[in-house]
Specification:
heterotrimer; A alpha+beta; B alpha/beta; C alpha/beta; A: alpha+beta; Ubiquitin-like (UB roll); Alpha-Beta Plaits; three-stranded antiparallel sheet; 6 helices; C: alpha/beta; five-stranded mixed sheet; 24 helices; 15 strands
Chain lengths: 237, 182, 598
């Protein structure tokens, strides 16, 4: 790595390549910044806002902002943590997230960040929105109740001509993910699996297979999200 | 000094959270040393006989009786704890929250695939039966709740640690593996 | 149908970045964008259906289901309501026998509410089949519905004389009034068209940028970024093509001064755009015009045509070899967020108007990823006058921090609503004296819903970047108004409706605040609600754009400046109330069981 930029995260001296985003540079320096909408390999979009960090008193998304020489980044200050927790809590109340019977429970990034931040219950009132489950597609189930509108599926899943299979529809709090019925009808099993894997929550579920890995043995059941990045393992919360 | 007093109840729940409380195994003996139980299905005390320190609520609020019980708990307990996902956010029963009540009842008693022997098409409606609310409400929307313990059910470890912390005033520390929503 | 759609798409060379124009033309010619039309678009532009639908469903004026033969878009923003919109709406509904938000069963009439249409000084106002109707009354509403039932053309439904100035131009013929109440150098009719262009051809681009910098003018849309600096960044940014955008989206409720500048001084704007083009090295200019101002289209197209004929646009402008610059109009389709510069660019590229992540900034990577300047109508018009008279001259107006003049849109409870060009540095009291008030003033909304609602003890504060910055909207709110219900709730509904939906806090928290306010208005609020609203305010800082960061301002600024209004409405004897209402929760049950008590 050509180490050309010096910067700090919470006072820890870090190095980054020119053009690297704060998020990628933090990861390279073994510092975890939580994200929901970001996925390595996809163009960042900064839509979930969970990766907000503070630079010079301003809030910036780590996934979209490149590191600059001498940057002093706050990743663990009280207001940053509170904004992140608030966003997680907003996502929990704006949809219908029934973890106990969700196929993704234990593998869900939203849930995992909520665990990491030790959120027993959201501070905001539950909205109980009236949302649909779309099951017409042969391979996929789209459960809008659980969708957090992160756009990972929009950005990551395209057909062989590069056309979008998923897209936003409407705006504001009425926005939903729209699935192209024609293009999604031709999805292969691999694409369907990829779509399910790309979804950070349980909004895209591949049909016919469920609970292959039992609850208790899943990705985030034993270790907090980000443990693979952080050097110092968190044992208690 | 008198022992702290605990009361428990299950509203729209499955008693799974109570089972989890019993899952603290031999620590239940320690707990019995530390506290006294008042109104609770565990000892079958039906009415509050004195003011309590801690009330544990399992389940969300789905009918008029639940409201009555929950308010009774609020009046009689210093600290009220929502135990489990149903108490916190309605849980599984809240799946009906976007289905009109009439549809729910018709499905359950008249048209559902498991309905048998109801030629007269009766939806139970005895004066003794509580009235069902339009949806299942989280407990903290009806009365003030002081503490939330998530999980379906919350792990025995978490329930135990939470009770100890409430009784002793020690800071609540839950191991990562014990803090779950599922 | 298919042929029509195909020819529309062909008109835009099957260019997917022109999707907005394609959709607008289809909507205008077919009345809606049908599934079959979407089939054709996706086939011809090689897009998936959902890609086409994501754009259509973003904009208020697009519809995927048939609209009426006649469509009434009635403005229901706060000032419209102050001026009697609800009464007019009631008559429309009674006479028509259908409701707002739907199309009548016979398909004749669609009636819809719409946010501010830039006519705050002549409300209640509506757009009917593209034509603007102002100063509506119950009587006029009855007439209009009866004309619609009689099948009249919209033109035949006008009963008033046309508005002042160019509003009566053959190509506009509108009842809209300019209501210009105070003229300054930007609104001034003086200065010959082209005089600034004739001056700049003798100057280098750097000299022009220096002159703009000397003037110290800052962006007039509201954000206040130094214009000269923006131009310099764009000039220095590498790029084979560069673009000049004029932001004529003017969506901030209460703002209408750009409409007047476009009607009365369009040439001054075109000149300013060409100057910007010359300064940064751009040959293409695009006026992003809000759909609500579509009635100005033919007129503005004609002004552009005349400018080309006069050699003030086109090739070798003013006979200067290589000074090429031309302008086209790009319409929006009803989305407040498109006033944000990067959202505006996205929209102009045929997409949803979602703001972009920055960096890169538009001056580096803007329209079609090329360096782009986005300036407000007033900013560009001011530049023309700066070049005509010099940066030093411009600095003689206003204050040290805020040079020049500001064209204000004043509306609400005042005697003379309209457009006022004043020097920066006027206090709110000066403005009130200028426009004439009716009775006691309770509050002034400075800078629209995203700005601040200030109380009388702040009326001595001055308008300027050093104190009260504003994009130009001032709404005067009389004592007789229920500030929280009539104004704040209306503004919150607006932000909930206009959020693009991308950032979590903006999409979701604005709804929660709106609901809390409703709860307080219902008399169910407690002190905790006020504490929560205060404690959660910083969460909005996590949003990407200006809309998101200011979407709670209607509540936050009134909570700060009018705490007594909130305190008067909360329950004093309770500390807990989450709004749970047992009677409404049992309503269905009572009905089903026939029981009456629990």
């Amino acid at each position: 790595m050509s180490k050309v930029l010096n910067f700090t995260i919470d006072g820890v001296i870090c190095m980054a390549e020119k053009g690297q985003t704060i998020l990628n540079a933090a990861t390279a320096n073994k510092i975890y910044i939580p994200t929901l909408c970001n996925l390595p390999g996809l163009k960042p979009r900064g839509s979930c806002r969970v990766c907000n960090v503070k630079v010079n008193g301003k809030f910036l998304t780590a996934c979209t902002t490149p590191v600059a020489e001498g940057m002093e980044i706050e990743n663990n200050s009280e207001d940053i943590i509170d904004i992140r927790k608030s966003i997680i809590e907003l996502l929990l109340v704006e949809g219908n997230h029934y973890c106990p019977y969700c196929e993704k429970s234990g593998n869900c990034d939203l849930q995992a960040i909520a665990y990491k931040y030790n959120i027993p219950a959201p501070r905001f009132p539950y909205q109980f929105p009236d949302r649909d489950i779309e099951a017409t597609n042969g391979k996929l189930l789209k459960d809008h109740n659980r969708c957090i509108l992160c756009k990972r599926c929009i950005r990551g899943i395209k057909d062989e001509d590069g056309k979008s299979i998923f897209a936003f529809k409407r705006r504001g709090h009425k926005v939903i993910i729209n699935i192209d019925t024609r293009l999604s009808a031709n999805m292969t099993d691999e694409m369907a699996q990829e779509a399910m894997d790309i979804c950070p929550v349980g909004a895209i579920i591949k049909k016919e297979i469920g609970f292959k890995v039992p609850i208790g043995e899943r990705k985030y059941d034993k270790e907090p999200i980000g443990s693979d990045i952080e050097e110092i393992k968190a044992t208690t919360i | 000094m008198s022992k702290p007093i605990i009361a428990t109840t299950s509203l729209a729940g499955c008693f799974g959270c109570h089972m989890s409380l019993l899952d603290i195994d031999e620590r239940i003996l320690e707990l019995a040393e530390l506290v006294e139980f008042n109104k609770s299905p565990i000892n079958d005390i039906k009415k509050f006989t004195k003011k309590c320190d801690v009330g544990l609520i399992e389940g969300g609020v789905c009918n008029s009786e639940n409201i009555h019980v929950l308010k009774d708990f609020r009046e009689n307990c210093k600290i009220l704890v929502s135990v489990g996902e149903c108490a916190i956010m309605g849980g599984l029963p809240a799946l009906r929250n976007n289905i009109p009540l009439r549809e729910c009842l018709e499905e359950a008693y008249l048209d559902g695939p498991s309905v048998e022997n109801n030629e007269e098409r009766i939806i139970p409606n005895d004066e003794e039966l509580p009235l069902i609310l339009d949806k299942v409400y989280p407990c903290h929307e009806v009365v003030k709740i002081d503490i939330h313990l998530p999980g379906c059910p919350p792990s025995a470890d978490m329930i135990y640690e939470a009770l100890v912390s409430l009784i002793t005033g020690k800071e609540l520390k839950v191991p990562y593996e014990a803090f779950k929503y599922d | 149908m298919k042929k029509d759609v195909k020819s529309i798409i062909a008109k835009y060379n099957k260019d997917e970045t022109r999707l907005m124009d394609i959709l607008i033309d289809i909507q205008d010619s077919l009345g809606f964008i049908s599934p079959e039309a979407i089939d054709v678009i996706s086939e011809d532009l090689n897009l998936s259906h959902v890609d086409v639908e994501q754009t259509i469903s973003f904009y208020h004026f697009f519809s995927m289901t048939p609209l009426g033969k006649y469509n009434i878009y009635l403005n229901n923003s706060a000032v419209a309501n102050m001026m009697g919109c609800a009464e007019v709406a009631k008559v429309f509904e009674e006479e028509a026998g259908s409701k707002f938000g739907e199309v009548s069963k016979d398909g004749q009439l669609g009636m819809f509410y719409t946010s501010c249409i830039g006519m705050n000084d002549q409300e209640p106002a509506a757009i009917i089949n593209g034509m603007v109707f102002t100063r509506l009354t119950k009587f006029r509403a009855r007439e209009i519905i009866s004309d619609i039932k009689a099948g009249k053309n919209v033109e035949e439904m006008y009963v008033a004389s046309y508005g002042d100035g160019a509003n009566s131009n053959q190509l506009i013929k509108s009842v809209v009034s300019n209501n210009i109440r105070k003229i300054g150098p930007i609104l001034s009719p003086k200065a010959e068209y082209g005089s600034a262009l004739k001056k700049i051809i003798k100057l280098s681009p750097d000299e022009i940028i220096d002159e703009v910098k000397l003037s110290n003018i800052r962006g007039r849309g509201g954000a206040g970024f130094p214009t000269g600096l923006k131009w310099e960044f764009c000039r220095k940014a590498p790029g084979d093509r560069k673009y000049i955008f004029c932001n004529a989206d003017e969506g901030e409720p209460g703002t209408f001064k750009d409409r007047v500048l476009l009607t009365e001084r369009p040439k001054r704007l075109l000149e300013g755009m060409a100057i910007a083009g010359y300064a940064v090295g751009a040959e293409e200019g695009i006026i992003y015009l809000r759909y609500e101002y579509k009635y100005l289209e033919e007129y503005l197209e004609n002004v552009i045509r005349e400018a080309r004929e006069a050699n003030f646009l086109g090739k070798d402008i003013c006979k200067k070899k290589g000074f090429n610059f031309d302008v086209r109009i790009q319409f929006g389709a009803g989305a407040y967020v498109c006033g944000e510069e990067s959202a505006l660019i996205e929209s102009a590229e045929g997409k949803r108007g979602e703001p972009r992540d920055r960096p890169p900034f538009p001056v580096e990577k803007g329209y079609l990823n090329k360096p782009t300047i986005v300036n407000n109508v007033e900013t560009l018009s001011s530049v023309t006058q700066i070049i005509n008279n010099g940066g030093e001259w411009y600095r003689s107006f206003g204050t040290r921090e805020s040079t020049g003049t500001k064209v204000l849109s004043v509306s609400g409870d005042c005697l003379h609503p309209g457009v006022y060009e004043v020097e920066w540095g006027f206090s709110v009291n000066d403005i009130l004296d200028l426009v004439g008030t009716m009775g006691d003033v309770q509050a002034v909304q400075v800078g629209g819903p995203s700005g601040r609602c200030i109380a009388p003890y702040d009326f001595n504060r001055i308008l300027g970047y050093e104190d009260l910055a504003t994009g130009g909207s001032l709404i005067i709110i009389g004592k007789q108004r229920d500030l929280l219900k009539d104004i704040v709730l209306n503004f919150m509904d607006f932000f909930v409706e206009e959020s693009c939906g991308s950032c979590t806090p903006c999409r979701s928290l604005s709804v929660i605040y709106r609901d809390k306010l409703k709860k307080i208005l219902k008399g169910r609020g407690v002190q905790k609600d006020l504490d929560d609203m205060y404690a959660w305010r910083h969460i909005m800082k996590g949003n990407r754009c200006g809309l998101g960061q200011t979407a709670l301002n209607p509540i936050l600024t009134t909570l700060r400046n009018f705490p007594e209004l909130y305190e008067a409405r909360i329950q004093k004897n309770k500390t807990f109330d989450e709004g749970f209402d047992i009677h409404s929760a049992l309503k269905d049950s009572f009905e089903i069981t026939g029981r009456k008590s629990f």
